[in-house]
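User: Run a structure prediction on this.
Assistant: Running it now.
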Amino acid sequence: MSKIKHLLGISGGKDSAALAIFMQDKMPNIDVEYYTCDTGRELDDTYKLIERLEVYLGKNILKLTTVDSIEEIPFDYFLKVNGNYLPSSSARWCTGKLKLEPFEKHIGDDQVISYVGIRGDEEREGYISKKETIQSIFPFRKCIWSEDVVKAVLQNSNITLLNEYANDLVDKEKLISFKEILDKKLSLHFSQRQKLNSLLDLCVVSFNKLVFKYLKEKTDYPVGKLDEFPLIYNKDVIVRADVFRMLEESGVGVPNYYKPIEFEHNGETATYSRSRSGCFFCFFQQKIEWVWLYEQHNDLFLKAMEYEKDGYNWIQDEPLTDLIKPKRIDQIKTNYIKRYKKLKANNSSNKLSDILLDDAEGVGCASCFI
């Protein structure tokens, strides 16, 4: 295993921190190297979380950057390089320059397994590098393998081969059912997702064993170069509640910006907080999160305002100077409370990240952290 690097990126958010705790506690035989890509524009709570995590792990978390001078703030440097053009959902240069490039520069041509903290209750794919030497693994999900690996393994041309593998790797009491699924060809009526879920529902470990053997014998993926890979025996599926529990029980704690703060508006009460880690001026924030920043970290909000110049705004068609006008804040909070009350009346989650899913003030996205 010493020939392959095991890396885990710490964003300063809850999921990557919980994944570091998980790997430390559940997979101690995997020598993981932890790193973070500092934009220089994170909330203080982000840096505090990283410090507490270093204590818990007993390891330093490597700070990566593509900026040579320690006196330059990475985000500000690349903002100048990009002609003071603020990043946006359509021109997302910040992720590439501040997150992906430092990571790929650090590893060079090394064979790397990158552990990504996408939870089992999330419906999205994570960062998949274009470099064949980097393989992403998702320990929190029922399927730990990336989409490209699943596609390669479950292609129809592998049916005979996988059946041969199954004879040696699948428990006898499940073998017949397992092979019945393997024998079904992918088609318009039986998708890759359906086949994958059927196999996982029958036996996660058996499926992982098949994939591991396939990677070893038929591919150059980094995991296939290992003599053993403990994660193939893991059956845990980690959801958001588990993440918060792990952070609290470990003593690392939940970053303060996730913790709901109660506010009153027009005689009604609700709570708000931040739904993600990242730069304090992240353009994927929802309007209520900008209001949270304005009211809870006014100095940072004013700093975010300073970046807006010549029509370049964090929010499309709405400069921050307009967002903080009393009538606009009133409108944002009123809309937010309507959604908040609706969810509570339906006994649904009242967490900000859920409330924002259907927020008419805008749609968020997956975290930019790998």
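The first strand starts at residue 5 and ends at 9.
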